[in-house]
Amino acid sequence: MPNTRILSLQAEHVGILQGRYERVLETHGYDGLLISSGAAPTRYGDDQSWHFQGFGPFLHWTGLTGFEHAWLLIRPGRKPLLSVYQPVDFWHASVELAQEPWLAAFELLYSESRSAPESGDISQLAVIGDPPLLAEVPGEHNPGALCGALDETRVHKTNYEIACLAQANKLAMAGHHAAQDAFLAGASEFEINLAFQRATLQREADAPYHSIIGVNEHAGTLHYQYYDTTAPTKPRSLLIDAGVRYRGYCSDITRTTAGAGEGRFGALVQGLEQLQRRLGSMVAPGVDYVDIHRKTHLGIAALLSAAELVSGLSDDDMVSEGITRAFFPHGIGHFLGVQVHDVAGKPELSPADAPFLRLMRTLESGMVVTIEPGLYFIPSLLEPLLSGPLGHHVNRPLINELKGCGGIRIEDNVVVTGTGRRNLTREAEV
Asked: Residue ranges of the alpha helices (H) in 188-237?
């Protein structure tokens, strides 16, 4: 049950969105906007549907993740109309709309039809959502310039959104602690996943993304998607990247644990932990996020040198020669909100030295970002380095020793404040 503060903040949040959307609609020449909540498509050649979680703009307004075929009509100067689909159905239960104070800001309509509500006297109507669901709806569908402007309304989080993200972090950290305990007790990946779900009280299908749970060499696959049901004879490492969705808002947290007797790998985990904290302390208004990414590579170079994984090269040379990218191939992070990789992060293409970076903006107060450096032993990336002209700088025997541990990633969720940062994940870790 949400606390009274969050309910109060949601009412404030709706008022802020009303103002933001009215300004966007006026700028782009529309006098109304219809938003579809979406619906789960049926699998091809089957009568079963994919799991449903909802369309981002609809969640941004309502946080209602399980409401298929609902509609939200935004009308400048009037209350938004929220149309909730409630069929008479003995096969499935209808989702109940909790009677919470924020609903007073809406005009409510309950309908047995999946059809969009009538738009009334709106002459210039924009409609956004999954195109197949909009086919019979009058209005201009998913206009690009308008959709881009609406994405911008999600960049600076309201106090309500930050409170939801903080709660999502708190719930997820309980799961991470349970997962670590299960790993250290000898559990399999499947059992570790169950431990996370038990602690968070969230079905995996309702999580913001499929949990990444890699033991030993599986930790070296960045988005490892399977769960072994049998624990390895010698559990050397655990990498778990898992989050919780709370009122539509996502946490995205990664932790890495060294197994018993893995002193050398454990030292690398501690080294990356220290680097991750330093990078997190860089988050502040006016900071170019790309600079944090580039500082990460210098930090990875220093760690490779200190661990004697690479020798005979300066930190700058390791970065410029691409050595650090073989150990840290992804970006330092992304926006976070009602989507794990939230929108509007890339108004321009990523630079050549950071092709997978998902966020290309100068940080501003109200943004929420992830900070997630990694250091991995991925054969397909390291073999070309080892066999190339710089291979003699790389400690192959040590890499062979450590590659069975897969890799390390440590990830926090950080709010940009007016004067610096607020680390939601570290707050929840206490």
From this structure: 189-200
Decide which of 122, 152, 182 is a domain's last residue.
152
Amino acid code (one letter) for 230 = T
DSSP codes joined into one string, 22-42: HHHHHHHT-SEEEEE---PPB
Kindly tell me the burial class for residue 72, based on how many C-beta atoms sit within 10 Å of its own C-beta (0-12, 13-18, 19 or more): buried
> 275 and 227 in one domain?
yes
Do 100 and 225 lie in one domain? The reply is no
C-beta of residue 402 within 8 angstroms of C-beta of residue 414: no
CA–CA dist 221, 202 (Å, integer): 25
Q: What is the pLDDT of residues 395-409, one digit of tens each?
A: 999 999 999 999 999
Range(s) of the domain holding residue 221: 159-429
Give Rg (Cα) of the chain.
24
2 pLDDT more than 80: no
Same domain flag for 41 and 185: no
Q: How many angstroms separate the CA atoms of 306 and 291, rounded?
A: 23
Annotate 123-144 with three-state secondary structure: CCEEEECCHHHHCCCCCEECCH
For residue 277, is pLDDT > 80? yes
Pairing relationship of beta strands 253-258 and 237-242 according to DSSP bridges: antiparallel
Q: Which of 137, 152, 167 is the last residue of a domain?
A: 152
